[in-house]
């Protein structure tokens, strides 16, 4: 058994747990749906509602200036749920609301979200645990998430 590698894996898991705990504490604090100061610095509203510039790195494969927060709502929500920062999560919760994020996850049955992220969202926005358990138990997901690097 390779003890140094096992110890490093254990330390990595502890870092993830600590990060999760800090995010949960912040996201579930009173007033958690408010946008932090500065997040609305370039947020537009109206018929052509662009995205704030801080979301740009999430949309590396498209021109983020061409995205509309409402017209491309599903695409924006998918990226933020799967790869967003705490700042982008705050923005999405403020812009779309927890109900819209929950509806997106339920409509897609948790697809596009790895198991740990799905569990995170289950806790943060109150997804039904029976549904999340069923989504995680599908054969397709078990094959994909059960893979090991060689």
Question: What would your notes on this structure say?
Answer:
By secondary structure, the chain is an all-alpha fold. The chain folds into two domains: about 30 residues; about 110 residues, no CATH class. It is about 55% helix and about 0% strand. The protein has seven helices and no strands. The longest helix has 25 residues. The protein starts with a helix and ends in a 5-residue tail after the last helix. The relative contact order is 0.09. About 10% of the residues have low confidence.
Tell me the structural class.
Answer: mainly alpha
Average pLDDT level: 78
Proportion in helices: 40-55%
Shape: globular
The oligomerization state is single chain
Please tell me how large the radius of gyration is. 17 Å
Listing every helix as H and every strand as E from the N terminus to the C terminus, the arrangement reads: HHHHHHH
Which blocks of ≥5 consecutive residues have pLDDT under 50? 33-47
Distance between the termini: 17 Å
List the total number of helices. Answer: 7
Q: What does the largest sheet look like?
A: none
Estimate the strand proportion: under 5%
Query: In total, how many beta strands?
Result: 0
- Please indicate the count of domains: 2
């Amino acid at each position: 058994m390779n003890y140094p590698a096992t110890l490093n894996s254990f330390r990595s898991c502890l870092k993830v747990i600590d990060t999760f705990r800090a995010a949960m504490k912040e996201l579930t604090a009173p007033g958690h749906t408010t946008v932090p100061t500065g997040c609305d610095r370039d947020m537009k509203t109206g018929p052509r509602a662009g995205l704030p510039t801080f979301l740009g790195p999430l949309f590396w494969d498209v021109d983020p200036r061409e995205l509309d927060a409402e017209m491309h709502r599903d695409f924006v929500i998918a990226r933020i749920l799967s790869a967003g920062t705490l700042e982008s999560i705050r923005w999405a919760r403020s812009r779309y609301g927890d109900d819209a994020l929950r509806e997106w996850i339920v409509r897609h049955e948790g697809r596009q979200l790895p198991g740990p992220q799905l569990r995170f969202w289950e806790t943060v926005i109150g997804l039904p645990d029976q549904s999340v358990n069923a989504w995680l138990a599908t054969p397709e997901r078990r094959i994909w998430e059960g893979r090991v690097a060689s």
